[in-house]
Write a structure and sequence with these properties.
By secondary structure, this protein is of the alpha+beta class. Helix content is 29%, strand content 23%. Keywords: ATP-binding, Disulfide bond, EGF-like domain, Kinase, Membrane, Nucleotide-binding, Phosphoprotein, Repeat, Serine/threonine-protein kinase, Signal, Transferase, Transmembrane, Transmembrane helix.
């Protein structure tokens, strides 16, 4: 009886190990696709490259249908075909769906009308399993068999099925009345259907016009009387099982070929009885995928064969039991077990030491547990705070806008820890610039990229929508002369932006700072002007949604290590519908750059950006600031100063000395006249940014002749109106901040981010 109980337990244990091993073994090669649809793809099968052992084990995952389908290729006369895989087992078989591989033999009152006995051939690298499939025939006047003389195997097998009437047939029974089944030969890889009829179906046409034959997985087909009258039965799909193996060598031959031997650590080679090649399996006490290497099973966790008080020790491929100190026996549940020995004089001392050690260990565990609990609670608290800050800083608005704009994958959300590490905890030595709204830090990401981290000093909820909108705008822009936004962080006290690092400061510093290291030649200035024009033209004409920058000025143009221009700061920008001609909104901008027409009407058009760019061109030409107290009061505005000089033909007097010392080149005059057109008070007479960009690029590359265009009437009108329009600048002090004047009407526009620092 005891032996019987032991046998049952071992049987259950073996079953448990089998299930565990099967689950553990169903694994792909590391770094390879492990599933396709609902099908697990274990190595040696794989989806290409080094993921499969050989071409015969290649699985193509077709993601066109839903769910995806795993497809097994097999050679045919002109290339290859594919069949859908339903299951792959490391026990050496694969289930596939046989699509329409059903032979038929149909009759009418005139006799036989169709016969598919010409044959179907399965030219796979794997044999059709003779243990897991059955040849099945249905019909009431049917002699069906399959034959083949190909691939070195001659065979013929079949069965007969007859019935006098439909009443003779029993559902679910394939014993010869209406349905019959028989085994197929070992090693079969192709077959041909053959049919015959004793009475040409003359007695059964009313309920059985056709006979059918097919090979199907054993147990997968359940016969129904209605199948006898189903004329579309040959279009059904049934599962079929193939036996697969590794190569064509047996185990003895394969083990000699150590370089290509497929069985890995702790596995054994087996020769299948129905196929060429060999298979691998994990040896006893190990589990996993034998083609990748099997791992030891910890029997002490899955099996309790040690007696009460006995201690289990796991060993590679096995385990053992023993009794602790103070007990005697072998420790096995079905052995002598463990019995306590008689107390010895030193037992009390041993007990005391055990208690002390146990107490110390318990105290240590308690301390570790408290420390772990504290850290867990602290992390949870920090996570809640980060989520709260994320929502306060516009995180939900960010997700909504990025999702609606289709750019959620273009702007990365950085964690606070990442940016703290990148900026060395916001070290003062990393500060690149300061401003009224915050600071910009230089940082380095883990991948080695140098970045600029923009950090606000205060949280102003009125700027949140601008902040989020700048991220939306920059994520949509892909131009080499527009600063690239890498991402943001919204889980900190103040929101952070992460840009690409632009090393050579702003165009304003380039023009106005006396730094001999800066190359200020006319060619470089002209190239910078052309690059800025190209970027603004892209925003107006080529972006997926037209964008008005609304704050173009030299301090918002950065220069990289090669002094290439990068337009930045889209805090006040707006994206507009393609059919919109202007925005009626709050007046925002900077004195000296603000379009007078926009200032008067509160209507911002693309020509307003053209005007601001005209001021930047004049800065490049003259080296003067847009607003300067060193000039006479009526000429403090650079536009008035420039237009007056142009009207009086004094361009040489105001051009930067770095340019003038070489004389006035034709392209300098042409650029000055282009700036004059951009600064026209009537926006209708200003060129578009696309026209400006084309003209500057033509001048930069010196293609064609430079033909200055004089517009004296427009110049006169501009000078007169410009003086009138900019009278308010004459009473300003030396401190000129961004202009922010609210108009009486605001249209429904999409805003964009925070002010420049």
């Amino acid at each position: 009886m005891a032996f019987l109980c032991m046998f049952i337990k071992l049987t259950l244990f073996a079953a448990a190990l089998t299930l565990t091993a099967t689950s553990a073994a169903s694994q792909a090669k590391p770094g390879c696709q492990s599933h396709c649809g609902g099908v697990t793809i274990p190595y040696p099968f794989g989806t290409g490259g080094s993921c499969n052992l050989s071409s015969r084990h290649f699985i193509r995952c077709d993601t066109t249908p839903n769910p995806a389908q795993a497809l097994l290729r097999y050679p045919v006369t002109m290339g290859y075909a594919e069949v859908q895989v339903l299951h792959i087992s490391l026990d050496g078989y694969v289930r596939i769906s046989s699509n329409g591989d059903i032979g038929s033999d149909c009759y009418s009152s005139s006799g036989r009308v169709s016969d598919s006995s010409i044959g179907l051939y399965w030219l796979y690298d794997f044999a059709i399993s003779h243990t897991r499939n059955k040849f099945t025939a249905i019909g009431c006047d049917t002699i069906a068999y399959i034959t083949s003389s190909r691939i070195g195997l001659n065979y013929s097998t079949g069965c007969l099925t007859f019935c006098g009437s439909v009443n003779d047939v029993i559902n679910g029974s394939c014993s010869g009345i209406g349905c019959c089944q028989t085994a197929i030969p070992r090693g079969m890889r192709g077959y041909q259907f053959n049919f015959d009829s004793r009475e040409n179906h003359s007695s059964v046409l009313n309920f059985n016009p056709c006979s059918y034959g097919f090979v199907v997985e054993d147990g997968a087909y359940n016969f129904s009387v209605s199948d006898l009258s189903d004329t579309n039965f040959n279009k059904r799909e049934f599962p079929l099982v193939f036996d697969w193996s590794i190569g064509t060598q047996n185990c003895t031959e394969a083990q000699r070929d150590t370089q290509n031997y497929a069985c890995k650590e702790n596995s054994a080679c087996i020769n299948p009885d129905n196929n060429a090649g060999y298979l691998c399996k994990c040896v006893d006490g190990f589990q996993g995928n034998p083609y990748l290497g099997c791992q030891d099973i910890n029997e002490c966790e899955t099996l309790k064969l040690c007696s009460v008080g006995g201690t289990c020790y796991n060993t590679p491929g096995s385990y053992s039991c023993s009794c602790p100190t103070g007990f005697e026996g072998d420790g096995w549940k079905n052995g002598t077990g463990c019995t306590q020995t008689k107390p010895r004089p030193e037992s009390f001392t041993i007990l005391l030491v055990t208690l002390v050690l146990g107490s110390s260990l318990g105290l240590l565990v308690l301390i570790v547990g408290v420390w772990w609990l504290y850290n867990t609670l602290q992390r949870r608290k920090n996570n809640k705070l980060k989520q709260k800050l994320f929502e306060r800083n516009g995180g939900l608005l960010f997700q909504k806008k990025m999702s609606s704009e289709g750019g959620l994958d273009k702007a990365k959300l950085f964690s606070s820890e990442q940016l703290e590490a990148a900026t060395d905890q916001y070290n003062e030595n990393r500060i690149l610039g300061r401003g009224g709204q915050g600071m910009v830090y230089k940082g380095m990401l883990p991948d080695g990229r140098i970045v600029a981290v923009k950090k606000s000093t205060t949280v102003n909820e009125s700027f949140l929508e601008q902040f989020i909108n700048e991220i939306v705008i920059l994520s949509q822009i892909d131009h080499r002369n527009v600063v690239k936004l890498l991402g943001c962080c919204l889980e900190t006290e103040v929101p952070l932006l992460v840009y690409e690092f632009i090393p050579n400061g702003t165009l304003s510093h380039f023009i106005h700072d006396q730094n001999e290291e800066y190359p200020r030649s006319w060619d470089i200035r002209l190239r910078i002007a052309a690059e800025v024009a190209s970027a603004i033209s892209y925003l107006h004409s080529s972006a997926s949604v037209p964008i008005y920058h609304r704050d173009i000025k030299s301090s918002n143009i950065l220069l990289d290590e090669k002094f290439r221009a990068k337009v930045s700061d889209f805090g006040t920008s707006r994206s507009v519908n393609i059919d919109q001609t202007h925005l009626t909104t709050q007046v925002l901008g900077t004195f000296g750059y603000l379009d007078p027409e926009y200032f008067r009407s509160s209507q911002f058009t693309e020509k307003s950006d053209v005007y601001s760019f005209g001021v930047v061109i004049v800065e490049l030409l003259t080296g003067q600031k847009a607003i300067s107290t060193s000039r006479p009061e009526e000429m403090r505005g650079l536009v008035s100063y420039f237009m007056s000089a142009m009207e009086e033909n004094r361009l040489l007097d105001i051009v930067d000395s770095e340019i003038a010392k070489y004389g006035l080149k034709d392209e300098v005059v042409a650029v000055a006249q282009l700036a004059q057109r951009c600064l026209n008070l009537d926006g209708r007479h200003r060129p578009t940014m696309k026209e400006v960009a084309i003209e500057l690029e033509r001048l930069r590359t010196r293609q064609g002749d430079v033909v200055p265009t004089n517009q004296p009437k427009q110049s006169e009108l501009f000078v007169r109106k410009a003086t009138e329009s900019w009278d308010f600048t004459s009473s300003s002090t030396e401190h000129y901040t961004n202009c922010s004047i609210t108009s009486t009407s605001e249209s429904d526009v999409r805003p964009l981010m925070l002010d420049t620092f």
